[in-house]
Write a structure and sequence with these properties.
The protein has about 200 residues and is mostly beta strands.
Length: about 200
Amino acid sequence: MILGDVNVEVTITEVIDPVTGLTNLEFQVNVLDDTGSIGDLNAPYFDLANDGVTDSLSVEGDDVTGSAFKVDGVSKIDSYTNMNGEVIKDLGRFDGGVQFGTAGIGTDDIRSTTFTLSSDDTSLSLSDFSLQDFGVRLTSVGEEDGEMPPITGGYCTEAETTQCCRLSVADPLNARSCAASAGTEISSSPLPDRRALKV
C-alpha cells in the first residue's frame, strides 16, 4: 500500500501471454477510502531494476490514455500528468509512467483500474521492481461527496497529491517492507502461471 492523504493499493501479477509465451505484468490499482479522502487516479510512475527492457515496453488498459518510458527520464506524460518538486528532487526521474483518463473529474473519476505492461521481446518479472521507486499521482483529492480542500506542500498544487514509496522486494518470493510505512506482499495465485506482488 502507498500511504498518504489517500491510500492507494497496487497489485502486480505475472501473467503468461498464451500467444507469445512471454510473461507480462498486470497491474491492479485501487484508491482506498480508509482515510476519509478519495482521489482521481491520474498516473502511477515507476523505476525498473533492468533498464535494458525500458525501450521495448508497451501498455494496454481500458483507462490508459498515455504512457512514457525512458531510463531515468520520465517526470511527466503530458501537460497535466507530472511528478515534480520534492519527489523528483529526492528520487530523480522515473523509468516509466502510465496515464489514466483525463484531467480532473469533469469527464471521469477513476478510482480503480487495471493495465498490462509488456515487452516486445522479453518476459517481465516481479523482480523487475526489486528495490525500485514507485509513485502515484492523484487529482481532485478530498472527501467523498464533499468539498475538495486544497492540499498544501512543497510539491502539491490545489486538490492534488503525489505519493511515493520504494518497493523492497529483493527476492520476489519473499515479502519485504516498503519505505514510508507501506508494505509489499507476495501471494500465489491458484493458477500456476501467476504470481502477485501487492504494494
